[in-house]
Fold each of these.
Amino acid sequence: MREVGIIGVGHTKFGNLGRVTSRELITAAALEALEMSSLSKDDIDAVYAGLLSPDIFEHQMHAAPGIPDYLGMKNTPSTRLEAACASGGLSVMHGIIGVASGLYDHVLSVGAEKMTNLPTSHVTEALAMCADDIYEVAPGITFPGAFAMMARRHEHEFGTTPEMRAAVAVKNHKHAMENELAQFHKEITIEKAMNSLMIADPLTLYDCSPITDGAAAVVIVPWEVAKHHDGPKVKVKAFAQASDTMSLHDRPDLTGFMTTKIAARTAFERAGLTPKDIDFLEVHDCFTIAEIMAIEDMGFYEKGEGGKAALNGETYRDGRLPVNVSGGLKAKGHPIGATGVSQVVEVFKQLSGLAHERQLDDVTYGMTQNLGGSGSTIVCHILERGD
Amino acid sequence: MREVGIIGVGHTKFGNLGRVTSRELITAAALEALEMSSLSKDDIDAVYAGLLSPDIFEHQMHAAPGIPDYLGMKNTPSTRLEAACASGGLSVMHGIIGVASGLYDHVLSVGAEKMTNLPTSHVTEALAMCADDIYEVAPGITFPGAFAMMARRHEHEFGTTPEMRAAVAVKNHKHAMENELAQFHKEITIEKAMNSLMIADPLTLYDCSPITDGAAAVVIVPWEVAKHHDGPKVKVKAFAQASDTMSLHDRPDLTGFMTTKIAARTAFERAGLTPKDIDFLEVHDCFTIAEIMAIEDMGFYEKGEGGKAALNGETYRDGRLPVNVSGGLKAKGHPIGATGVSQVVEVFKQLSGLAHERQLDDVTYGMTQNLGGSGSTIVCHILERGD
């Protein structure tokens, strides 16, 4: 397969965006990405779209052809991918495969969700369907409950504390202060996080990511084209995907995800890199415990040591391994299908010097981890600075 | 990209299958395909799954990881694709891309739907969501209405008659008599079809495909592997995909699909073939008028001449261009996500001499056309006999 690069990114504001459709949000993000890439809509050979459930949220299935339709790209193949909260990661990955294979020269990969139309209880029920319906959803589990069990087990095995989880939320809220597209611009304290509403013991409100509308887009081209592009460009070093059992009871361990371990290891092997080479991460902090497990499972911390990272300041923007400088799902927001694409957009911006107030210094490699369900799908990407 | 072949297929009975999940149906079809391929589950590098809406039909989103889970393939990447009734075609196509690119050596592409759980009115409403929600669904259109408008316009422009459409239903019901996996084993007459319940004027009950449960699976490998396989094998000559506007009012013509024309033309170009080279077809007869439009738009009949094909006997199993020898969606049944895979399974069986009573003589090339929504997605495949 040939080498691949990204030459354009787009990203809407994340938040409660009112009366707008995911198709319109995608159009806005895609036009921004196309403008940066200097490509026209007619240059695009295929569209991939990560969308969790436009049927449930917007009464619109078969949403993918609506994207080239609204963009005025008549007849461009357009494909929807769904893997719960990892739908966006798979959209980017399949855009990369399309170009790397030689099938397409220019692919637009997008992701979006319009979630705030529905009452919170409906959203929670819709999201719960991404767990195993027979063994988990029917008996009554929702994702806060599933991740609460993981948090409890992580506490039991490794002594991880509520304060450590709260520190992840404090860090990501602080990071989001410098991301104008983030849903929240509000600093919080460890005390405030720990004393917030109990959602699913031991997880409180500030351990949980919010309900969000938004979209993100990237333009993927062969690296031979990207490297001559007169504008920002980033090289795709590796992607990887892994699946696991739907039910938690079928897994030997609740303190981490085998999928994250496999996807990260595969990505490192394909890239010829190790965790030591990676300068910063965007990981899937749908709950604070998920960020802690991610940085452990990806190999950046020993198992059980991840809880100390945010508390010690190591994963802040000025720490030794910045994690979720965008604000993460926790504070940037989590429009399901958009999240995996948004992570790649943030890594692109950091590697291209386009991250404004939150710009990291001297970064060469950034990595993403995008999680679906209770970790039944994981998608990782490693990107390299292109200039 | 490297050449690709298929060395195993599986297919459940289609019909009202009672208390069973799509995951279980897929497991059955996949095990049959794996057995034919002589590969073990551990050889499979990736799974692709076409499923329209396991969320609405079965309260299960994020269904893809459940497939390797049930098959005991721990951690194999598994990806769901949704493009309305073309979801299965995209599952096969992305399996082919995965192997052709060199990324994977062995891919399992599956498709399924479990639809008979819901009342017919709920299914009709769910399917309607595959049209444009804003411009078509909200004002009240469902697919019988959309295809009725196409049928009316085809009558107006070309003099296509209700008898010609009925002849498609009669033919496909006759074909299904020799397919033990088909939903219906019941011959009908033109009179019976024309006098059946009016669904959406001018379409009667027998112009419409049924609501069906079922699954199908194929095993895709490099042609270099397939050609040495001690068992049935078929070569993938080409695939192609096209999209169109969601709304019918944005199209210049209602008597055919630009997407079918583009996808078929692209597939012929990639295969280095013309319609004259193709021995038989499996096309998307969700409504009888759709089969007529398909054989025109694919280039097998002049525009306006397709209506005569079944009436003249030309598209029967013993005719000059057999179409839907499996029974088609009309009589084999139409479990949405399974259909595109099922078409490829039928072409494989015909090219491998495995079609039992309905076996065609001396066939070298077979072609599929799989349609999503009101033609907003089309996927075509051309397969070549491999022995």
Amino acid sequence: MNEYIKNGNRVTLSELSLPEDLKKLSVQQCWYLCGEIRNMLINTVSKTGGHLASNLGVVELTMSIHRNFNSPDDKIVWDVGHQAYVHKILTGRADMLSTLRQENGLSGFPKPEESPHDTFISGHSSTSLSVACGIAEAMRIQGKENYTVAVIGDGAMTGGMVYEAMNNCCYLQSNMIVILNDNNMSISKSVGSLEKYLTTLRNSEEYLDTKRRVEKNLAQIPVVGNKVAKSVKQVKDVIKSTILEKTLFEDMGFIYLGPIDGHNLRELEQAMRMAKSFHKPVFVHVKTIKGKGYLPAEKNPGEYHGISKFDIRTGNPEVSAGDSYSTAFGKELVNLAKKDDRICAITAAMKYGTGLQYFGREIPERLYDVGIAEQHAVTFAGGLASMGQIPVFAVYSTFLQRAYDQLIHDIAIGGLHLVLGIDRAGIVGEDGETHQGMFDVPMLTSIPNTVIYSPSSYNELKHCLKNAIYDEKGLVAVRYPRGAEEVSFHINTEYSEYMFVKNNKSDTLIISYGRIFNEVYKAQSLLSADGISCDLLKLTKIFPIADNLIHEIMQYKHIVFFEESTENGSISEKIGSLLMESCYRGSYSRVSVNGFIKQSSVKSALDKFGLTCDKIADYIRIRSIENGKA
Amino acid sequence: MNEYIKNGNRVTLSELSLPEDLKKLSVQQCWYLCGEIRNMLINTVSKTGGHLASNLGVVELTMSIHRNFNSPDDKIVWDVGHQAYVHKILTGRADMLSTLRQENGLSGFPKPEESPHDTFISGHSSTSLSVACGIAEAMRIQGKENYTVAVIGDGAMTGGMVYEAMNNCCYLQSNMIVILNDNNMSISKSVGSLEKYLTTLRNSEEYLDTKRRVEKNLAQIPVVGNKVAKSVKQVKDVIKSTILEKTLFEDMGFIYLGPIDGHNLRELEQAMRMAKSFHKPVFVHVKTIKGKGYLPAEKNPGEYHGISKFDIRTGNPEVSAGDSYSTAFGKELVNLAKKDDRICAITAAMKYGTGLQYFGREIPERLYDVGIAEQHAVTFAGGLASMGQIPVFAVYSTFLQRAYDQLIHDIAIGGLHLVLGIDRAGIVGEDGETHQGMFDVPMLTSIPNTVIYSPSSYNELKHCLKNAIYDEKGLVAVRYPRGAEEVSFHINTEYSEYMFVKNNKSDTLIISYGRIFNEVYKAQSLLSADGISCDLLKLTKIFPIADNLIHEIMQYKHIVFFEESTENGSISEKIGSLLMESCYRGSYSRVSVNGFIKQSSVKSALDKFGLTCDKIADYIRIRSIENGKA
């Protein structure tokens, strides 16, 4: 454990008052502290899982920010907050780091309820400039003279919101500083022309110096003869009007500083001080190395982006990726696309997360990684579809929210055929509120003519994907959860849109879909052991609801629907209303999710909302007693 | 009527085979044709209403595009398609122009089902680059060598999708040409740093020429002495690496051509030919004058953006703006904001459309026009709210779809207080499918803890707005329709969240909200005259549904809900499910909207969906007979 000098005394990290005491440390001591923080990060994330490489890259940058700004009066806004672990350590939460991403523990993202230093929630990308612009304007209205600092990675720079915000904040001349943490990659290898542009800037000499040198040299060009003098003057004028406003960020209205070495504390601090002096929109371009200080992560930062537990010495993740709905989807899509060159695969910077790496390996010419740009992804798919291609957009449920309008306006109104592979549909666990896949069902069902499949196994996923591509028209979604299948049911059937599992003479029907069917199936056994008989209905094509389905289920006296979706706009709500409109006279109840779901294991969250087999069995037991009384 | 030479014969516009014959006309004849088109536009829009100024500005540009590309093999994608009237005329639809924006007539936007020359639907802004990128990629896959051309206005350039698309299409090196129709204003006065930047470009000399001149002049600088030689070389190097990649669009990866005079056919055609020669992403910057050729529109293009019928000679719109829900909202917001400097108003390029011009006049320092950037608008509001301001975002229902994720991620999860003034909620009429306000109810109700008000009169709107600002927390929406209130009911009550209008001993209850209540109220009288007695329930705070409400309405034997919203995820669906879950044993039915709604008058659309007083009365009469039988 390192020691630091505070008021002349030697103290440990946990005895420092953070972030204030950072300002009192010498640069030498800051270096020690950076080392200690890196060890802490590696040790912790090896046990808890989480985002390692990005945080190793911002140790010096984060320290420099906290040494030069006064949080929480100055507001620091972290974009895609998973780069904020160092910030958490440096604002007094080092002792809690071991609880990272666990139930009731530290969030993996900034969370205002956790600390006054966490300015704004940020699990989704590209929001920080908009937030900072709002905060800077509020400060202006309130007569406050504090700073607002947005810290954004180069990956997040591809999101359209950033551009909308640049356009607005520079117009307003907001007192805000944007720090670009440029590690030359977003989650994995970066894509897009902006990245190419940033790379050019990264590799340029320090920009401010270049400008000065040119101006000096210009002054030295001799003026010989009239014609030449005119030429020289023209050149000088052009240079003044161009070079002096050169970068894209200056074109958008920022003062641009950089590129700065993000691991050189002195250089960083000089840039921070300069940035503070303008009181206008300033863009500070900082070069960092993702995974800095931990060799396995430096060598392969993509693998250490969001990871499970791993062995520190070997660098090997404890749990191998293995099979998952994502890989099952990715592999089947390759199978289909090999035989049909109309099929194109699209991802918004989530090639690995969505299992599209197989597609990239086998059919790279029809795989499109558009960057963190879900809006463009959907409308781009619309363009492809309008020409007879069959685009398949693989996307996390939570990120698809970004493209609601495009799904309506650029796909559904025109009746274009787009297949959505919706990954991480349902509860995702440790990432918490910002990442839960809770809204795709209400979102998609609200759009006329949409079809939704929700398979309960890999095998069904393959069937559904094939149906979605070949048997359906228009907007079709296949949604599946994070992780691996759990299949305790062994029902030997052909694929069907829905399926009853019947006992003899049961008057109770339990409806479900997706992975919850497995829980319901197990609950049926538990109940059977108690002498309670239930029939099951598993929906696979969950929307639109088949015409004859309502009449079939109306044969039961009691119907209960268990659904892993937010309650409003869910399938169980639609079935409820359809039963009412059909004058059903039995009892109907439903168990779904209400509110936002905090971080915890998936199992714990499902349990909390009554969606595990035990809770399902309990619920039916109680209903059964009530129905007996009634 | 002008005459044109075709195969040596004199023919009229309607005898030309368009767009092919355009290529055979001399430039002189094209000028005549431009004049004829302008007259046609002014005459038609003066009768039908629609978008005049933007179309007057693109007459030469559109002609030049069709002379240099082969539609429909080459694909022309119009961004915010309301600038496509000239395109419609030049692709053989001149004779139908008088049916513009009417039921079963020509759409005010491009519509593939209308013509093979209409590549893609576009009512919302900033989609064209994404669409074109998709089309260009499909052509690549299919081995086609045609061109894809996106035509986008400077206003639409502020939408984040454009930036996402630039990043992607330049990375892909797609064979596509982007034509920026820069008329220096979006819908009204433009805002944002990008606009400032474009203005700088507009006012520069022709850019390609500047480059050439500089290079020539550089060659003329004499090299005198060693030290100077080094300086000159450095200057030259810097100029090469900077000036030759100067504009923001070149930074993003485009070849940039411009600025071009958009009313000079020869200059336009030269640029088109050059653009075609690259087979890479090319950006052609064309300067146009909005309203060109019609003085009232040139002088005041904002007023002639989207207009009602007007008198050609005076230029006066026949129908004055007058009172509307928008102005009632705008005026009340000023009243409240004058007394409370926490209140900030936000618009996404719709200051006039949303009634915020009053706010702009009285409290300009707290009005934010962020450009066509709904995503940024919401997250910017989140930043303001996190600092204790009270942001009010006035936005059309259909455009709010762009910000679904931001409402969830940047407002609702953090419990921040944002008030939405949702204008054009419900059916909007002539703009058709792309502009109907049909999805805000399912969209917002899916988000936990959201509150929605739907007033039925100006007076209620004021109450609701005040409640939303002061009595509620979190995300609160006040939604109201396009146009003026129609209030035939005179119910003298205090404001309340819901209200029953009771007859004696009626066993039928009709529920509704918003402007449909007025229809229901009139239907009640019609039915009463037939001896059919109904009670009414008007919801004003429509969500969440009050706890005791279900129990109150369960007293009725028959319940019917009339709702101006898409059916899935609507309030009537939620009430249906709640009744079912509460074991209601009466009859329940609901009338709402299914599918996308085509252009027509609002009245006609309401009638089609059974939401006018006559249709409502008919529906109840039939139910009443059925119930009598049952």
